[in-house]
Amino acid sequence: MASASCISLLLLVALAATAVSAQLSPTFYDTSCPRALDTIKSGVTAAVSSNRRMGASLLRLHFHDCFVNGCDASVLLSGNEQDAPANKGSLLGFSVIDNIKTQVEAICKQTVSCADILTVAARDSVVALGGPSWTVPLGRRDSTSATGDTGDLPAPDSSVEQLQAAFSKKNLNTVDMVALSGAHTIGQAQCLNFRDRLYNETNIDTAFATSLKANCPRPTGSGDGSLAPLDTTTPNAFDNAYYTNLLSQKGLLHSDQVLFNNAATDNTVRNFASSAAAFSSAFATAMVKMGNIQPLTGTQGQIRLSCSKVNS
Fold first, then answer.
1. What global pTM score does this model have?
2. What integer is the mean pLDDT of 40-69?
């Protein structure tokens, strides 16, 4: 009886987990706001065309939203999460989402959530920079509060084990983790997040490190905000060059290079480096899974009128 009860409990847990994602559907707005996806895409395409870095910014915004209390657009609320050390001064793209929200509200009043807009915008950003596309399940609702606790976000000095633990906590496996790390094929990082790697680590290409030191000097505080591309090979193209860089010990962050450093993830990195198709497929799968982290659905939360504040 004990084993039967245990099996029943496991089934209930599994069913509860799938029930939430089952409430999300790619066709959620087909009737209520059929032009929603086209409106989001045009807004993202225009923003990325104007500033290529914005593609990485919108993708990062989605990641930081989902890893803190789920994909509920809490990161878009003014204050709280935005002001947390992991986010303050480094998260960008809020005005782009606000502009898209205004356009969507003009055609469908209080129908499309900010959480869904951000999730779709992340996908469209990847596509705009030459990356893969995928079908986005929809139907998320927006939170009515935000937290200042961003402790679930993996740090740039994380070990492989710490990365695996952080992603596992969100029901993302090791392949998902390595694939999502490939988002660093675009975007930039601040000197303060890779200075230690330049001066204190040995698993880094010497010429690569030297080229970065001029704009990231050793004294802490000097040049902290100086930027360097996470992928020096093709910084504005979404491709698999991030992984070939790792093979050459040219990962910018400690948390990048640990993925290829005699680790359990080495073979996955080699696979993605040798096959752009394998990376694209794994990345798309992982993005859908990440987008399903603890969404608010049904009557939970609200549909915000403005993404930066809860409805009054």
1. 0.91
2. 97
